[in-house]
């Protein structure tokens, strides 16, 4: 139930007997107490930071206070569930890389962070007194009126109602109790209205803006496209492997059997031999094509073995060392493999290197792959070596590609991809 639903519920019969007024009271109570605690905490933190700023120690604390709105806003968005409201999405982007420095840089640049800080200041110094005053009036006044008669019977002489009216008559006290029931029912309306208004303010200031929603949609759609692209690559590879490749193998075998049946040294035997060699060449090209689309070893055994297989096929001697915690996401493994494959192709064609080395490691949520060669260096992404397209491919999975290739060498290509392991750890 969103805020519009709350307003509609207030117009329905039986609203005062529903649970909504009590939920609104709970919402204002929790938000009011949280705001009061926040106010006290901010005052103390600002005072301490101001004193320590004289010796520069308080400056980091003052900078950190700018981010106090991030957890408080997350709390406020969750608090909306007390009113039965729809979930409010987190407006923040996910950092491209793990680690506190990257998280801090992103948060300080986001508009959502400063909106949340503004709301936090508003909640700490203005909203919480309003919450508690409205709650107090809506609950304390009816409670005083309802308790007039019981208090009078206990005291035996008089009761001071609302600290402004001395009542000595049980009839008057009973009438005030009946009035208290009516006042409680009436107070349910402004109480719920204030809660709904506050919830609407939270949604207005703390929900993602139009640009943030579009960014979130673009990120989600890109992830879906990457997954669909990888699934389609695997399907094409499987169809070629199980279909066209098997037919070519059968054709090559049939040509070989026919050549055995042909008279030795005849023109027919020579033609069948030529046809068999051509079929073998086509089969080899098809296998290279399949391997370039999506190697089966990558699907079956993962990134380390796939990179080792690529290194075995390289004309340049390559040493491979990997330390990764099991299998990674298919898109991550695919991006890492093709980065290594393209790098080895460039080493063989352009570098003049005598040896190369591949190092892969996983730490703190980041997969890092280094490809180092002892060639002549001077690699230029703008020179048509495929590095630009490779960087685009890595960026699709939120990764980054860096190249250090001074003239004379050596050349280091590094790929960094944030990811999470999918299987238990093992080392290769």
UniProtKB/TrEMBL annotation:
Annotated transmembrane regions: 20-45, 51-75, 117-145, 165-189
Domain Putative sensor: 27-206
Keyword tags: ATP-binding, Kinase, Membrane, Nucleotide-binding, Phosphoprotein, Transferase, Transmembrane, Transmembrane helix, Two-component regulatory system
Enzyme class: transferase
Family matches, as InterPro entries: HATPase_C_sf (IPR036890), Put_sensor_dom (IPR025828), Sensor_HK_TwoCompSys (IPR050482), Sig_transdc_His_kin_sub3_dim/P (IPR011712)
One Pfam assignment: Sensor
One Gene Ontology term of the molecular function aspect: ATP binding
Cellular component annotations (GO), alphabetically ordered: membrane
Reaction catalysed by this enzyme: ATP + protein L-histidine = ADP + protein N-phospho-L-histidine
PANTHER family with a match to the protein in the record: NITRATE/NITRITE SENSOR PROTEIN NARX-RELATED, NITRATE_NITRITE SENSOR PROTEIN NARQ
Name of the protein described by the UniProt record: histidine kinase
